Predict the 3D structure of the following.
Amino acid sequence: MPNRHSPDVVIIGAGVVGAACAYYAARSGLTVAVVDRGPVAGGTTGAGEGNLLVSDKEAGPELDLALLSTRLWRDLSATLPPETEYEPKGGLVVAPDEPALKALRAFAEGQRAAGVTATEVPADRLADLEPHLAPGLAGGFHYPQDAQVQPAQAAARLLAASGAALHLGEEVTAILRGPTGAVRGVRTGRRELLAPAVVNAAGTWGGEIARLAGVHLPVLPRRGFVLVTEPLPRIVRHKVYAADYIADVASGSAALQSSAVVEGTPGGPVLIGATRERVGFDRSLSTEALRRLAAQAARLFPVLADVQVLRAYHGFRPYLPDHLPAIGPDPRVPGLHHACGHEGAGIGLAPATGVLLAAALTGAEPPLDPAPFRPERDHGPADVPTQEQQS
Ligand SMILES: Cc1cc2nc3c(=O)[nH]c(=O)nc-3n(C[C@H](O)[C@H](O)[C@H](O)COP(=O)(O)OP(=O)(O)OC[C@H]3O[C@@H](n4cnc5c(N)ncnc54)[C@H](O)[C@@H]3O)c2cc1C
């Protein structure tokens, strides 16, 4: 006999996005169940770096979502326990030469109009912010709104604070539909969880959950590697990256792209991330990716050239071809909502996603226009099912 529970909403996925959806849905007065086939943060969240960046986003809907999230993460940091490791350390984007600096200036100008604080740092003042930076850079921009959390802890703490019923180690194998086609819950290996609303927060596997509900959502994996050094004294104070990282993030190319983002951590290791490539769910080690990251990090911080790398890890970003997440109700299946496809920014964008989702579930006024994130939108020319969608 299946166990039957009736929360107001079932959320599929205990990553940071599912956790934020659970948190804000519960705060809106809804009863919530979260189901995951693995542990909390066992998907891409456990493989992320925890950058909360506005600096890498051009003016537009994703930046609006990031700015809202920045405020929400700050509020959350006052209520979540210190293990969340919220650190408003700020970002520093550096330009190797004058043309790159000129491009950064234009980029920052657009961001400022959208509400971002971006301050130009002349070449001779870069060392004030980062004493170990390589000499000879043309200048940079300081972004004080960039911050950091520990992603797995953040997901776990948000879930605990939500009070949601957790069903871990249970794979969702079916989306249950009623006679009118509306969602009435999910089936797992162990039970049926009945609810009038189901949220697809399955990250990189969001396309498969959509398929279970009979709709198409072209989420693809975009692999990323991260290097972790031996513990060091705090030699890197901000999130530091070169201007070409911004182009890598915005690119839709399947080929290997790498531009190191370097940052110190409270524990001492320096994190160097991250590459981007679309190779399906290929888990093999790419020495080329690691070599490139290490070389780029050492170009930014020459002192890193002699440091030991302790380990490398990888994960699969949930990529939608137009680089915007899918957030909100799916008009093709009443009661089905999506909160997935955040690519390389899901940790940063999680709280705003949760707030938008909670507003959609309760009929409250959303804090920003949700239209650009409509799940059923045309996702662009690359919106065709491919082998990459196979797990
Ligand atoms: C190397 C790397 C570095 C990154 N760095 C950053 C960063 O600095 N800042 C940032 O904002 N983002 C970063 N990201 C991206 C970020 O990690 C993701 O956008 C984010 O973690 C997505 O969270 P999620 O909750 O949507 O997905 P996930 O964390 O993957 O959670 C989805 C969950 O759904 C579960 N699931 C799937 N299918 C089923 C099913 N059928 N039944 C039950 N459960 C199911 C999975 O087990 C999983 O736990 C990085 C990613 C990578 C790979």
